[in-house]
Design goal:
Elements lengths: L10 E8 L5 H6 L4 H13 L5 E5 L3 E8 L3 H9 L5 H7 L1 E4 L1 H11 L11 H15 L5 H20 L9 H12 L8 E4 L3 H14 L4 E4 L3 H11 L2 E2 L5 H5 L4 E4 L19 E5 L16 E5 H5 L4 H7 L2 H49 L5 H23 L6 H12 L10
Helix pairs in contact: 5-7, 6-7, 7-14, 8-9, 14-15, 14-16
Keywords: NADP, Oxidoreductase, Porphyrin biosynthesis
Enzyme class: oxidoreductase
GO molecular function: glutamyl-tRNA reductase activity; NADP binding
């Protein structure tokens, strides 16, 4: 593996778990709400973590950060969630240095999403970066990397059709309703939870079902009212939840609670009821399936719904990968420059020491010594020498590490400071 000199004593890691190996229940154990994220950041600060980026969505929870060992980051996650280290190790992934960098590119570019081309993760990454910066846990390396991933994501969106067509968890849920429920336009639909997925689902419901009997409920009523006003929908108080469930034929749950908010005891109707749970952790208790009239579908099932749109998207993967490789290559070039910057700086200091000593000698020896001219000539020579070495170190055909060691040995350099990126 390529050695990155990107930190004084730490490596860059990506640790986490996703839909690929962890089911919804396990992902729920490691889900981080806003309070948990803040607690994790405070703990990282107290533990002298150098830089940290935390993301938690319905499909994945990840930490990108610097540590001497990945367990430091894993412990942070487990200390601030209901998950255990044993659970984590069974389903998790740990990437180091360039593999961690490559992983962030794939995630941020929609290639690792549960639904190919779903770019909602990039807004999460931006939000996470903003939080890290607020806590002073966002060093130049992380900032440059996140910006590079955002750049790759934008290019893939504009230069490929990998996100064409309406395919997302919210659309898949509406598609499922249309395929499985007759006379959808005449059914009472209740949407419980108006976060991002809830809002997107609401928009798709209005657009595709032609249903005018959609009711919204949210714990914070004004949030629901903002969305309802946009689509001219009905909003009910949280206190009316049970009453509204029992008068509905379709219930969509998209809340962000850490424990189930819906269970069989809220359902007192014999009418057929389809429940779609779009939440992580699961917000609908499995006990609702004990009721004969209730059908429960979770977002993991919805995310597996493949259609022609997804098949078309797969054709654009090679071009997306090529874009990632190009942007990643530019990032690595910058990283390589950061790698030898301390040595070039130390070399310049050493050459300046030579210059000072030699000018002092010549000043004593020559009565007509031209100080100003000698200074200009010396500085120009030093700049040419350091530029020559920098150009050499950028050459792909040479071993940068070996060249750095040789330069340090020949000029007896002692780098006063490592580049802490």
């Amino acid at each position: 593996m390529q050695k990155y000199n990107i930190s004084r004593s730490n490596y860059f890691y990506a640790i986490g778990l996703s839909y690929k190996k962890a089911d919804a229940e396990i992902r729920g154990h490691f889900s981080l709400d806003e309070d948990a994220k803040l607690a994790l950041m405070n703990q990282a600060k107290a533990n002298d973590i150098e830089s940290l980026i935390v993301t938690s969505t319905c499909n994945r929870t990840e930490i990108y950060g610097f540590a001497q060992h990945p367990f430091q980051l894993i412990q942070l996650l487990c200390d601030n969630t209901r998950g255990t280290v044993d659970e984590f190790q069974k389903v998790a992934y740990v990437y180091k240095n360039k593999d961690a960098i490559a992983h962030m590119f794939r995630v941020g570019s929609g290639l690792d999403s549960q639904i190919l081309g779903d770019f909602e993760i990039i807004s999460q990454l931006k939000k996470s970066a903003k939080l890290s910066r607020k806590f002073g846990l966002f060093n130049p390396f992380s900032e440059r990397l996140v910006n590079a991933v955002i750049q790759a994501s934008k290019r893939i969106k504009t230069e490929t059709n990998i996100s064409s067509g309406a395919t997302s968890v919210s659309f898949a849920s509406v598609q499922y309703i249309l395929n499985n429920i007759e006379n959808v336009s005449n059914k009472n639909i209740l949407l419980f939870g108006t976060g991002k997925i809830g809002r997107n689902t609401c928009e798709n419901l209005v657009k595709h079902t032609k249903n005018e009997q959609i009711t919204l409920i949210n714990r914070t009523k004004d949030k629901a009212e903002k969305i309802a006003g946009k689509f001219n929908l009905v909003v009910k108080d949280y206190a009316n939840l049970q009453e509204e469930i029992n008068s509905s034929g379709i219930l969509i749950v998209a809340t962000g609670a850490q424990r189930p908010t819906i269970d069989k005891h809220l359902i007192n109707t014999n009418k057929p009821l389809l429940i779609l749970d779009l939440s992580i952790p699961k917000n609908v208790d499995e006990n609702v399936t004990e009721l004969e009239n209730v059908s429960l579908v979770h977002l993991d099932h919805l995310s597996k719904l493949t259609d022609q749109t997804l098949e078309e998207r797969k054709k654009h993967i090679p071009l997306a990968v090529a874009i990632i490789e190009e942007v990643n290559s530019e990032f690595n070039d910058w990283l390589e420059t950061r790698k030898f910057a301390p040595t070039i700086k130390a070399l310049k200091h050493k050459l300046n020491d030579f210059k000072t000593a030699e000018l002092d000698t010549q000043r004593k020896k020559l009565s007509d010594f031209n100080e100003k001219q000698a200074e200009i000539i010396s500085n120009n020579i030093i700049q040419k020498i350091t530029n020559h070495f920098a150009h050499h170190l950028k050459d792909d055909n040479i071993s940068t590490d070996e060249s750095l060691d040789l330069i340090k040995k020949v000029f007896q350099l002692e780098e006063s400071t490592k580049t802490n990126v």
